[in-house]
Every structure is written in C-alpha cells, then in structure tokens.
Amino acid sequence: xxxxxxxxxxxxxxxxxxxxxxxxxxxxxxxxxxxxxxxxxxxxxxxxxxxxxxxxxxxxxxxxxxxxxxxxxxxxxxxxxxxxxxxxxxxxxxxxxxxxxxxxxxxxxxxxxxxxxxxxxxxxxxxxxxxxxxxxxxxxxxxxxxxxxxxxxxxxxxxxxxxxxxxxxxxxxxxxxxxxxxxxxxxxxxxxxxxxxxxxxxxxxxxxxxxxxxxxxxxxxxxxxxxxxxxxxxxxxxxxxxxxxxxxxxxxxxxxxxxxxxxxxxxxxxxxxxxxxxxxxxxxxxxxxxxxxxxxxxxxxxxxxxxxxxxxxxxxxxxxxxxxxxxxxxxxxxxxxxxxxxxxxxxxxxxxxxxxxxx
Length: 359
What we know:
This protein is α+β, with helices and mostly antiparallel strands and 359 residues long. The protein has three domains: 1-169, 2-Layer Sandwich (Alpha-Beta Plaits); 173-228, Orthogonal Bundle (DNA polymerase, domain 1); 242-356, Dna Ligase, domain 1, CATH 3.30.1490. Helices cover 36% and strands 23% of the residues. The protein has 13 helices and 14 strands. The protein has helices at residues 16-24, 49-52, 62-68, 79-93, 122-137, 149-158, 172-176, 189-197, 203-208, 211-218, 222-228, 259-280, 312-323, and strands spanning 8-13, 33-36, 44-47, 73-75, 100-104, 107-111, 141-146, 164-166, 242-243, 245-256, 282-293, 298-304, 333-345, 355-356. The strands form four sheets. A five-stranded mixed sheet has the order 5-6-1-7-8. It has a four-stranded antiparallel sheet with strand order 10-13-11-12. The longest helix has 22 residues, at 259-280. InterPro entries: DNA/RNA_pol_sf, DNA_pol_Y-fam_lit_finger_sf, DNA_pol_Y-fam_little_finger, DNA_polymerase-Y, DNApol_IV, PolY_HhH_motif, Rev_trsase/Diguanyl_cyclase, UmuC. Its cofactor is Mg(2+). Monomer.
C-alpha cells in the first residue's frame, strides 16, 4: 500500500504579541505598536502591522525603531497573557491532530495526514482552525498548506496577514523557483548573502547549483538546500520536540581583521539571540562562542552559569568575556556565532533544564 501524501498545515498568528496588546487595550487599535522597552539596549519583540509600514521589525533595536517611526508606542511584554492565548490556540489544534510541533507561542506545524476529525480537505480544516481561533481569541491567523513543512511555511507567509494559501503536490518546485532565497525558512540573512555572492538569488538558481558545489560552500546544510530548491523536505512534524539551544551566527562577505569590527558583529548577534529568547520566553545557562578563521580553522569557547542569563546585557558581557582572550586576532575571521544552551522557560528554576515548547 503506497504511503499517503502528507498534509501539513503551518499556522502563524498575525503580529501575535502586538495583536494581543491591541485587543486588550482598544486605545492601541490602528496604532503603530512595538512590544518591548524603548531604552538604549532595548529590542523590539514584536511589531504591529501599522508599525511594520514604517520598517519596524522584531529583533530591531528599540532606538532604531523609534527613529523609523517617531509615533511608535512601546508596550512592555506580558508573557502570561501571550501564554494563555497560546494555550487556547493549541487546544484548538488538538481537536484535529496529536501531531503538533510548536515553533514558538504563536506558530506551529500540524500533520493532518490522518486527522482526528474528518473534513472535506486540508483546506477545510485550516479554515475551520482559523475561524475557531478568531472566535475564541479575537485574533487572526495565517495558514499555509502543503505536502511538507518547508512549503507549508512558505505558503503561510504568502498571504499574510489573515490569509490562507495552498501549494499542492507537484507544484512545489515551480512555486519555489522565482522566490528569493532570503525568503526561505532555514536560510538566514548571512547565508542568503553568501548565496547571492555565488550568483544564487532565487530558488531556480539554487536548483541549478550542483550538490557538490553546495557542500563545498555550505557543508552539511547543502543537502537540505538542494532538496528545498526542488520542493523536497522529508522532515517529520515532531510533537513535544525539546529545543536544545538557541543561537545566531553570521558568515562575513569579507573576512574581518579589526577588533572593533568583530565586537560590532558580536553586538548584533547578541541582540538577535536575545530577541529570540524574548519571543520564546526562554533563557539558558551556557553561553557558547563560535569563531571560524579565514583558513577554516574553528574555535569554540563556552561558559556555564548557575542560573539562566537574565537579560541582553548579561548575554553581551558573557560573549565579550569569551571573545576577549582571542584578541587581538591572530588570523582574519570569516564566521562568528553566539548561542545559549541549557534552556529553560523564563521564571522556572534552573533545574528545569529540558524545555518543551508546548505552552
């Protein structure tokens, strides 16, 4: 008996944190809202669609966001409220399938190949889920439907906000072909820039690049890139998958030689990592620095703490302490990364090491 074609739904709440704030405070409706703190080291955890029109984005330093949108209203995050709404949303998911893989409080994959409630189609299930979310929470969600996780994620982004899009079997490769590689989930900004420097700008360009060439430039990730350019992604939906670490790294288009350049790059990476922590309401006890030289020799340095890192400044201090013994640079640097491990939900005891992303 042939294996049934998988049916995957990706649900993504629209501007989740900011939308909750606008729902709970009518004075914020229609206003440019940023969830976060407007201070020197502050970061935007989420931005309303009104704020996004000005170029305000999550993970953006708060002072830059304020410059882009002088009328921006900053609201401190209320994670208890977001977690409560997330629990409502996941209760809706559980009506249809036990195969739910949360990515954060506001985003999840659902495998409905064999749904618990029979409906005419995957599209009908997705529409029913979106309607239930709106009815119970007053918030909108976007949905993408396809035969694998990569395409479902692309599809949910395609009609945001409050939209639904389907990429049916046999159409994935054609859908991917004209899209910029920078829009692909799993290809970050640094990798996209690296690909662009190699003449890879679209899915079609990526498909035309031989696997051995991709392996030379991107190592183990090359097989994944080779597959998604063809609309192929065999990763299963993994319920209760624990996140082991959270980090960011960047490969520089030109090798760095000077200490100030490296310190500036470190500062940006820390901001991005901490923004990810805020979004997921997590932190970690172990900070790891990764540094790769121009000759591809690589160094890693780690430090563990008795309690989870409490704020962005503490993460920055830890990263800089790990970096300091490596300065001045003996050789140019092509890659820098910073990550947190030993994760726990913010506010839980440090002993709760293993984190489930289920609310």
